[in-house]
């Protein structure tokens, strides 16, 4: 992400060049959008959160030290912004079948149906995983998303989140266990 961002472009953005700012935005937007999509707090739209992130990036650009690639710095801002928005919601609850609407219950039934087309089943499974992830704490959801959905190595997840590598591994282990239990409860309720 953003490897094309050189010192000259960055300097032009810092000096207020609007064309450079647009180019900077277009180079980094796809990666920021991907982060937002994987960590989206419920009441936000992806575009709103991306705008919030880029507002922070542009307002803090003078704080960028150059010790890491600008793309990592922007990723860190995106991840932290998503985490902060999720923390504001703090209405964590255990996901139960009773909490699901009719559409979600149908989705669960479709995912459990082994006779379905693989492409459709995979799409439904991704949707179900997204719903299950909402039962995790914001930090656990972030670690699972970065490790298993975006497939970043542990060291990179550690760098992006600021968690030590051991903490990343422990959070991932516990979060996977919570997801398995939540899925077991949902499928048991579905069979009953």
Q: What this model shows, in words?
A:
With 192 residues, this protein is mostly helical. The protein has two domains: 7-89, Orthogonal Bundle (Rna Polymerase Sigma Factor, Chain: A), CATH 1.10.1740.10; 97-191, Orthogonal Bundle (Arc Repressor Mutant, subunit A), CATH 1.10.10.10. The protein has nine helices and no strands. Helix 1 (7-14) crosses helix 2 and helix 3 packs across helix 4 (70-89).
Secondary-structure blueprint:
Blueprint: H1 7-14, H2 18-39, H3 46-59, H4 70-89, H5 102-112, H6 118-133, H7 138-149, H8 154-161, H9 165-191
Give the tally of structural domains. Answer: 2
Count of strand segments: 0
Q: Spell out the CATH superfamily of the largest domain.
A: Winged helix-like DNA-binding domain superfamily/Winged helix DNA-binding domain
Share in β-strands: under 5%
The biggest sheet amounts to: none
Shape: elongated
Distance between the termini: 47 Å
Write down the CATH topology of the largest domain.
Arc Repressor Mutant, subunit A
Low-confidence stretches: none
Structural class based on helices, strands and sheet pairing:
mainly alpha
Can you count the helices?
A: 9
Mean pLDDT figure: 78
Radius of gyration: 19 Å
Q: Summed up, what is this model?
A:
This protein has nine helices and no strands. The protein has helices spanning about 5-15, 20-40, 45-60, 70-90, 100-110, 120-135, 140-150, 155-160, 165-190. The protein starts with 6 loop residues before the first helix and ends with a helix.
